Amino acid sequence: MKELVYKIADAVSGGEVVPIETAHISGVSYITIGEYGTQFLEHLASLGARVSVFTTSNPSAVDIGGALSVDEKIARGQERINKALRTMGVSTFYSCVPYEFVLTRQRTFHAWAESSAAAYINTFRDAWSDKNPGPLALLGAIAGFVPRTPLYTLEGRRPTALVEVKVGPLGSLEAGVVGALIGEKVGTGVPYVRGAVFKDEESRREFVAALSTYSAIVFAVVEGVTPNWREYREMWDPTDKVVISEEDVNAYIKEAGDVDAVYIGCPFADVDTVLWVLGEVSKRGAAKRPIYISTSPSTLKQLGKLVEKAAELNVKIFAGSCLVVSPHTRRFSSIATDSFKAAYYIPRLHGVKVVPCRRERCIDLAYG
């Protein structure tokens, strides 16, 4: 496998590589990689390939506990993927937020394939990862190194555009809109973001998720937030300036009509977000329309018996999968969500209409 990574490095980084501390692989749902992708993973496992660094995996098509219905073919295919990954030594946590338990240190090298996760550790920890394609992240995990692309160098992290955010503080939806707008307006490079104030952890997750979904960007310097932001400010040579106003954000937020379901947790919801939703629902009683919350296995475990109580209120909390990569989503015709990442992928992967709304409004729609 090392030879393959070296060959890729010859093509993209002049043959230079960097040693990595951790890896996170995407493309592990049978829905997204299908039979050929599954056979590729099985082939690597049969060759004796084993990861040489701590390696985690993205959500699968089947959740832990079976809250989401899938047909037998997909379940069998997913189990083959699981087996191949475990054989290679991958820690099958099936989470898009590995930064919850992988404490990446500043300016250490990592090979993370999930764009929102790579953008999170880049932006909020100044740990260094490019957006490695899923197969390359896995090959890098086996080899222990990846090509030294620009984001693995200090010079390659020099800010290239100044973004003035004149709206806030940013809730989850607003943070996603701002991330999407930066992605669309800047497109590539490294934005230096001034004026962004995030309400909570969830808004940070939504910001980087939308930024990396709507562009090729997986690193932004947020003034006052990103570690070493002052050093990056001194380095900057911005060629562009973008201003994002309240009017810009409001133009993306439309009044929603009837929906079949509400979805929270793309990226996976943290404990505070889940508890907030349960608090709102408890005040009103059982929701008329189901509220789905995807979260990490560790968060699900922390919630304990609250998961069963939530189910009585028509709130379905699950882990290890999400409505982006699960075929369960196809039973609906329209879904309300506060995630701009989900709003991007669900229509494309499942043909389901998605209505972006503020979290409070999303909960209202579950009762409307």
Strand order of the largest sheet: 13-12-11-14-15
Topology pattern, helix = H, strand = E: HEEHEHEHEHEEHEHEHEHEHEHHEEHEH
Q: Give the number of domains.
A: 3
CATH class of the largest domain: Alpha Beta
| Spatial separation of the terminal alpha carbons | 54 Å
Helix content: 40-55%
pLDDT under 50 segments (min length 5)?
none
- CATH domain topology of the largest domain: Aconitase, domain 3
As a percent range, the share of strand residues is: 15-25%
Overall pLDDT score: 94
Biggest beta-sheet profile = 5 strands, parallel
What is the correct CATH architecture of the largest domain?
Answer: 2-Layer Sandwich
Structural class: alpha/beta
Annotated CATH homologous superfamily of the largest domain? Aconitase, domain 3
Name the shape in a single word.
Answer: globular
Q: Would you count the extended β strands for me?
A: 15
Number of helices: 14
Q: How many whole angstroms does the radius of gyration measure?
A: 20 Å
Organism: Pyrobaculum calidifontis (strain DSM 21063 / JCM 11548 / VA1)
EC number: 4.2.1.182
Protein name: Phosphomevalonate dehydratase large subunit
Family: Belongs to the AcnX type II large subunit family.
